[in-house]
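Re: the request from the purification team.
They wanted to know what the chain is likely to look like in 3D before they choose a buffer screen. I agreed to run a prediction and write the result into the notebook, where they can find it.
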Amino acid sequence: MIRTTQPLTIVGPDGDESRYVLPPGTTLYENKHFPEGFTRYVVYFNHKGVVAHEQVVMEAEHDGSYIDPLWLEDVAGD
């Protein structure tokens, strides 16, 4: 696991032109390194109450597991 020292931009999902910020001091847990040169991380959040949501339908081709990651980038200007 690592702890960030700078804010990171979270790129919104496909079609979402918004950018979000992951604050410095966030702990990232390494999940998988890819030969293409990037690493997938897991972040844990706590939330009180009910999260507004929609169900994700598990398709047969997902074989019981579906991972839909977003991208993190350095904040522009840093």
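For the purification team: The CA atoms of residues 60 and 66 lie 10 Å apart.
Please add any questions underneath this entry.
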